[in-house]
Amino acid sequence: MNTVTGQIRPPRKTEPVRRNVLQTAWSHRGDYGYVLPAIVVMLIVIAYPVYYTIDLSFFQTPPGLQLRDKKFVGLDNYQAILSSGVFWKVTGNTVMWTISSTVIAFLLGLGCALALHREFVGRGIMRAILLIPWVVSAVAASYVWKWLYHSDFGVIGAALVSFGLADRPPNFIDNINTVLPSLIVVNIWREFSFAMIMLMAGLQTVPEQLLRAAQVDGAGAWNRFWHITFPHLRGVSTVTILLLAVANFNSFIIPFIMTGGGPSNASHIWITHIYEFAFGRQRWGVASAYSVLLFIILMTLGYFYVRALSKGDESRQG
Question: Are strands 59-60 and 71-72 parallel, antiparallel or unpaired?
């Protein structure tokens, strides 16, 4: 029998030979074939328009000329936008529109979700009623609220006069001081139902045992909410706020139908201003530069949205 002296090493395993990227792709060619039609559609519908918009933002396209007569101007379109006083006014409107709509719709949806999470008679009917704003078409809702806000025939103005709260019907959407808040009210009315649905789903994950134990220990309603309910809603709250922010930043239907950006640009937000540049003034280069700036902001919000979803997946796996 032979004896082996020294350190005993385990038998070395043969490491698999690493294949390069092309070999790996070729081995999965059948899998890529299934998704190839979707990739082609995405390239045609998404990638090419994005590329063309970025390219067009560096050209000047005066009204009345064909796009083939465009003139390269470099960053002049971006400089013209950023140096315009109207741009900063519209940016202020956009910030106010986005933040106010997002925060108030989220808080209102949270209150409704907490109220509807409890058992009471008629809860199903109340849920159905509160879902109506989200189900109604944005176009139909815009025309209905435009009629409600009408200075001569509007129901809201007539109600204020009949209750003695006003001498005459106010001009909600014809006044530069009240038009944007009035549109924000309409947008909140439409969006709080979405926040309510998302948060009601999040409330289903809150352990009832912890709530009962905290109640037995003498914790009040606020302490139970802040220390138990809210931490479980943190993930869904982040996703809901980001979705609302993206939707509001890119909102178009309500301000365009109800006011068209007027009066005196008081209700213009970025997306409606881009539409005016492109299809109203036919300044495609400036509108494209505007769109690139909007695209960068939306991509930033999208990054945080994907990051929030990734954190949620990691916490569930943990």
Answer: antiparallel
Tokens standing for residue 79? 């400089």
Per the structure, the complete domain to which residue 119 belongs is given by: 72-317
21 token code pair: 């990227």
Calculate mean pLDDT across residues 164-191.
Answer: 90
Of 27, 13, 3, 69, the closest CA to residue 284 belongs to 69
Nearest to 57 by CA among 305, 312, 290: 290
Domain-located, residue 309:
yes
Query: Position of tokens 């109640």?
Result: 215
Mean pLDDT for the chain?
84
Say how far apart CA 215 and CA 234 lie, in whole Å.
Answer: 21
Q: For 60, which DSSP code?
A: E
Gap between the Cα atoms of 15 and 220, Å rounded:
61
Residue 146, token pair as written in the block: 């435009």
CA-to-CA distance for 189 and 196, rounded, in angstroms? 12
Residue 316 sits at φ, ψ, to 5 deg, of -70, -40
Indicate whether 14 pLDDT > 50: no
Tell me the C-alpha distance between 270 and 258, whole Å.
16
> Using CA atoms, how far apart are residues 182 and 268, in angstroms rounded to an integer?
13
Long-range contacts from 272-279, C-beta under 8 angstroms, 24+ separation = 273/86, 273/87, 273/90
Q: Tell me if 82 is assigned to some domain.
A: yes
Is 260 in contact with 272 (CB distance < 8 Å)? Answer: yes
Longest Cα–Cα distance in the chain: 114
pLDDT band of residue 163 (cuts 50, 70, 90) is confident
CATH number where 160 lies: 1.10.3720.10
Residue 197 exposure: Cα atoms within 13 Å on the Cβ side: 14
Give the pTM.
0.81
Q: Does the residue 294 lie in any domain?
A: yes
Q: How many CB atoms lie within 10 A of CB 187?
A: 27
CA–CA separation, 32 and 209 (whole Å): 48
